[in-house]
Amino acid sequence: MAIAKAERLMSLALCLLGTRRPLSKRELRESIEAYVEAFGPGRGAAFGPGRGVAFGPGQGSPGGAAPASASEESFNRMFERDKDDLRELGLVIETVENLDGETGYLARRDSNRLPPITLDAEEAAALGLAAKVWQQARLAAAASGALHKLRAAGLPEDVDPYGSHGALEPRIPVHEAAFEPLMLACRDRRPVVFDYRKATAARPEQRHVEPWALECWRGHWYLAGWDRDREAERVFRLSRITGRVRSRAGTFKAEVPDVVTVRETVASWAGERADRTALIRLRKGAGYPLRARAVGARELDGGWDELEIPYGHGLDAWLVEFGPDVVVLEPAELRADVVDRLRAVAKG
Fold first, then answer.
1. FRET partner for 325 with CA separation of 20 to 30 A, picked from 73, 189, 266, 318?
2. Are strands 276-283 and 304-311 parallel, antiparallel or unpaired?
3. SS3 for 109?
4. Helix (H, G, I), strand (E, B) or coil at 185
């Protein structure tokens, strides 16, 4: 069934891309063999007797066609589904009126051609990491399809968005059941209700929240939003949400800020505030997030740079992610913490 649908969608896409004028549903039904086999030739041939054009696997005459009264309605439903599926895959289908006054469809090639796309290794790594998040959620198919389109549009073959780009492969788990409904609620601006257990509470409490944004920090997902009961901005850890996330009717009452700093808020609550600096050596061409935070930098010989970066709680865990591309020079306690973590990783 899946193969038959894929072939039918491919036939419809080729037909819409190959025509120079809009084709009506009647003409498409007569031109695509999968429709003819399923529903019969319909009311009249698309291009006159003996001039039908078939797009699809195999040859031969249709058989087992349904009665006209039933087949017309069934074909219309299938055609609308197929058209929606192609649009979801990214095909731009125009609906226009053809020369006979009928509604026609076509997909212009200039509207369905992507410009050349060039991604460097860092950009491809970011896309790959984002796709790995969606691989564990309902958008896995959409993420994979997007990467296939980028590959078709010119993404270099030697750049693997799913590949590892460092000694330690970054992972962003999406195991919480609350992730997907909250992600959709953030996208659609829908209020939600859920039971939430604070770290210091024995029992969960119900929260009415206007969700703004989701962010992963230190391997855990957090939600930022407006708590209606407390009438204040709050950040919630998804692993502490119990039960089901339920959507509520209505719109947001509080204004959504332009920038939602979930990570900074959680970091301050966790005590990760930089009160001093650390000195590290960083391999050239690596560690761009570290370079962005550096308060001082100078070039060294041998393909290394020396950076001065803010030092606070949790920096050792972050530096370990860069593996052999980072060497801690000082302070000594940070160097020792990083070495201990790397030894633990090496032991498995």
1. 266
2. antiparallel
3. helix
4. helix
Sign of the CA dihedral with 197 first, then 198, 201, and 207 last: negative
Question: Within a 10 A sphere around the Cβ of 252, how many other Cβ atoms?
Answer: 15
pTM over 0.70: no
**DSSP collapsed to 3 states, 44-106:** CCCCCCCCCCCECCCCCCCCCCCCHHHHHHHHHHHHHHHHHHHHHCCCCCEEEECCCCCEEEE
> Mind listing the pLDDT tens digit for each residue in 97-115?
866 778 889 888 877 776 6
Q: Which amino acid is at 109?
A: R
CB 16 within 8 A of CB 38: no
111 CB burial (10 A radius; 0-12, 13-18, 19+) = exposed
Amino acid at 233: E
∠ CA 223-182-197, nearest 5°, is 55
Of 190, 7, 20, 167, which Cα lies nearest the Cα of 82?
Answer: 7
| Vertex 246 angle, CA 192 and 198, to 5° | 70
Give 144-166 pLDDT, tens digit per residue. Answer: 566 666 655 555 555 454 454 44
pLDDT (tens digit per residue) in 19-71:
888 888 888 999 898 888 888 776 544 344 334 444 444 444 444 444 556 67
Closest by CA position to 235, among listed 247, 224, 251: 224
Instruction: Give the Å distances, CA to CA, from 138 to 135, 194, 263.
Output: 8, 21, 24
Q: Which residues, other chains included, contact 243 with Cβ-Cβ below 8 Å and sequence gap of 6+?
A: 194, 195, 204
The DSSP call for residue 323 is: G
SS (H, E, C) 30-60: HHEHHHHHHHCCCCCCCCCCCCCCCECCCCC
Separation CA 180–CA 44 (nearest Å): 48
Distance from the first to the final alpha carbon of the chain? 44
Residue 25 DSSP symbol: H
